[in-house]
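Researcher: I'm preparing a figure for a lab meeting and need a structural model of a single chain. I don't have an experimental structure, so a prediction will have to do for now. The sequence is pasted below. Please return the structure as tokens so I can convert it later.
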Amino acid sequence: MIDLPAQFVGRMKNELGGEADEFFASYDLPAAKAIRVNTLKTTVERFKEISPFALQPVPWESSGFYVEDEKPGKTVLHAAGAYYVQEPSAMCAAPLLNARGGRVLDLCSAPGGKGTQLAQYMAGEGIIYLNEINFRRAKILSSNVERLGIKNAAVVCASPQTLALRAQGFFDKMLVDAPCSGEGMFKKEPNAVAEWSEENVKMCAARQSGILDCAAQMLAEGGTLVYSTCTFAREEDEGQIADFLQTHPEFCLTEEHKLMPHRVRGEGHYAALLKKCGDADSRREVSIRPVSPRADKKAEALFKDFASRCLSIGFERLHSVADRLYSLPEGYVDFGVQTLRAGIELGEISNGRFIPSHSLAMCLSPQQARFIELDQSTALSYLSGNTFPCGQTEGWAVASYLGFSLGWCKVSGGVAKNHLPKALRINN
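Model: Understood. Here is the structure written out token by token.
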């Protein structure tokens, strides 16, 4: 068993009483692994037919499945964004929010498990902001949003305090997966054990309280908020919510769940659903105005020429930033914070030509562009950065596997030249 901190052992014995032995015995079991099918790109039914894994359902998420594979993130289908690797108990929070559109914020989003899960529920309706205070982690978040082909997302990098000042009462639904002492990560991350202390629990609780205060400011009247952690400490879970409700009487608790590793197959998670008083339908409209897209005329013309030859889908709300062209989500607001992604980056203008972006490729289906279907061996070779022979019509095309986009290639002289970004190439 993991060498658990003595103070943690004592606290859990007091908390669980007669269940404590069963709880500690769970640490002798291997960490549960799971994936979540990306329903923005496929159906659960189809994925079951093509899955490289044996699948067992996760009870609280209809698109979630336990897998036994040691490295489920090392497949072609993962690179294609067909699924997301996610700890199973962590999947319990997003379904509580019932995000079906509107203005949604995942306040502490990286690496993106819960935020991309929310985006799946939204199914392209409304707009979702995914925020991460750490820029390096925000880049990882943005890459996951891109891989999963999410069109209606904005990835931003700001502190909760900064965002709260600029988005008062703006969001209909929010998820706060707060930084925590990480007691549910002990099996997966040895550093979490080494870093645990009573002092760290108290520090995390204080930080969570500040984050929740910011969240309360940004949530509209009648809105809903899900608070979650991957820890078992009452100060960070039930106690945190109890304190929040005392200082924010405009909120009420509607649901509360605590998944424990000796009761469910997963490493543990806490989630609470809160509602803010008021009528969402009659709330005051905040005075923040969406961005009016403005596209450089030359860039727009070059893109439309490219689209007429290579795409069978149109893109609206075209917007230029320097030499890059974007399709902004409906209702997108620029809050004046660092923005890594807003909608879809369509491509860039280089030497008078339009060069399509990887972001564009990853949100396309076989019905929307010219796809070149590859077998598994050639797909792996493509993901490693190699060219491949191709007798199809010359020009831009999407390399694909089982109908899932992998990225762009450009056919010339019977060879498909590889345009997969170097940072995304894998070593076999």
